[in-house]
Structures are given as C-alpha cells and as structure tokens.
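Aminotransferase
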Amino acid sequence: MPATKKELLTNLNHNFNKLTPGGIREFDYKASSIPGIIKLTLGEPDFNVPAAMKEAAIASINANDSHYAPGTGTPALRKAIAHFMADRYNLDYDPDSEIAVTVGATEGIYASLSAIINPGDEILVTTPTFPLYMVVTKILGGTPVEIDTSADNFVLTPAKLQAVLAKHPHAKGIILNYPSNPTGVTYTAAQIKALAEAIKATNLVVIADEIYSELVYDGPHTSIASFIPEQTLILNGASKSHAMTGYRIGFIAGPQELMKPVSAIHAMMVTAASDPTMAAAVAAFDTVEGKTATLEMKEAYKQRRNFVVEVLKQLGFEMTTPNGAFYIFAKIPTQFGNDDLKFATDLANEGKVAVIPGSFFGAGGQGYVRISYATSMETLKQAMDNIAAFVNKED
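Structure:
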C-alpha cells in the first residue's frame, strides 16, 4: 500500500486542522461491534421505499434514461418540487430559476454555505444541532457562532438572536434546522413569524434546513420563507419523508439571485443527480401515492414517539416532547450526573442499547442523549426494557 509523501501533508487544506472527529458516526461504528446491541443511533427510516417510487426508478432505467441531466435537475422533478412546495406550504418557486436538485440535503448544505461564506465570515448556528453545519462552515474558512437554545426549550427567540447579533453584528448568515435534529422540537407559526420579523431587520441569509418538514405531528409545518422569502434558502428532500436516504435526492429553493451562485457551485461539485433517482423523486413529490406513504409513516412515528417518551419519563429522563422528526433529546437521570458520553458508553456496553451523546451536537447538549425512534415498535420495546434494567440497576 502506498504511503503519502510526508512533505505533502503540510500542503493540505489548513481548515481541516480545526475539525474535531465525527462523533456520531464514530460512536455508532464502535457500538455496532458490541454483541446483541440495539442501535437507536442514526436518522435512518426503517421503512422501505414506497412502491410508486421504486417503479418510477425502474421505468427510468428500462427507458435507458442514463444521460447527463441539467445541473439543477430534470424539468419534471423541478416542477414536481414546485408543486410540492405550493401544495404543502403555500410557497411559490419558479422551477426554472429558483429550484436546484442536489445529491441529498447534505450536498445542499455545502453548496448553500459555499455561496455565501468568505474567509472569516461568521455563521450563526442554533444548537444543539446537526454538527455538519459547523464542520462545513469551518472547512470553507468561516467561523460558526453557536447559539445555545437549551434554556428556551430549544427554540431560538428574537430576544436571544438580537443579543447574539449585538456581539456579532457582521454575521453573514444563520442556519435554522426545524423540526430539529437532534431535539425533534419545531417552531409554531407564531414563533417562526416573530423570529422572521427579527431577521428581516438584518441582512442575514437564512439557510432553513427543513428536511423533516413532512414529519410534524401536531399542526402544520410553517416555513420561515412564508415571511422572508427574499433572504431564505430552503433545504429539503425525499430522504426522511419518503424513506429514500440511499437515493440521495435533496433540493434547494430560494430567490433567483441567491440561487444563481448556489446552483453554479452545486453543478461544479456533482454535475447533476442521477436520472433514475430523480424519476423516483417525481413520484415522491407529485403523486397521491407519495403523499399517502408519508402520512402513513408519520402516524407510525407518532405512535413510537408517544411510547418512548412515556417510558423514558417514568425512568427519570427529562425532555421537551418532540413535535417532529424522529428523535428524542433526553436529559439523563440525575443519578448519572452530566457526563453524557460516559452514560452512552456504559449503556451500550452494559445495557446493549446505543444512543448518541448529546454533547456531539454542540452547545447545550451536554448531559443529554439523542434517541432515534426510526425503528420498529418491537425493537423499541426491547430497547426500553434494556434501558430500564440499566437505569434501575444504578439506583
């Protein structure tokens, strides 16, 4: 096996030296080697891709649909996405100039941040949150400014935002992820409207990661773009709503002048998403079958959430009941102190249940664990029995 010439190592992107190891995947990998482990770690839906989506992908392959698509995605998919955004959220986007299909929402994060960050720029990030936002910001030479929302039930208030802006008046953008990974908390229409009014008085670009927007349990999802579309880039996709994580279809929607650099950077990185997966996404976003499948999944997730929240509260965990996504962010019982990494490690080794330490998600996460309930009720029942045995043994 070849060894890298040592002198080359000093020529690498220096921003990588600012990064910390990827805690979530690393912890999941280590836990996976434990015999008998039940993993409640990753945000991976346990449902199969609905039949209509699979049939559309197969039809695309059989039709020899194997050539380069336009960089922003096939016209059919962009039209389907425009219809989806209008139908679900009453948002109006031009499929020809205001929508770009990405290789998952992850690539959308990179393309969006690449379009706005210059070296040294500050990006506000509400935490606890998906750590990739901070990682990408650092790789691009920016500085993430974490806003700890744990004291406000994991919701960013206008007052907190204004206090942060007083200290960081030149911040370039703000990332909002809701429903949230890892907390499952989302914003009411009134909360997001008040926050939008505060942001409107600034020149912040809002990157609104709304990938879990279809998985809101009580009441509709309200996009911040309903109030400030002129300064918002929405990230969304089919991964969570249609169990299509492996198909890697996401999208970005925003005003034309913001979308120009975003779309150009996206095309330079990946050229375009694959034709068969885009055909599948058309069926996801623009058919009755696609909408029905999401509603059925959401109902199953809601039942799982109710079960897990009830059991955890009985065991001494504290949490804000999530109203979206498929995660519970629970404060560990008081007898275990505040070391979430130790708690999660001991639970995996002794209780045979893997969860993710809350401190991996930034400021406000210490003392918590993230539990994914994107698995079967049978598995969740066994996991809760194991957690109960582990917690009660420590009493």
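The chain has a mean pLDDT of 96.
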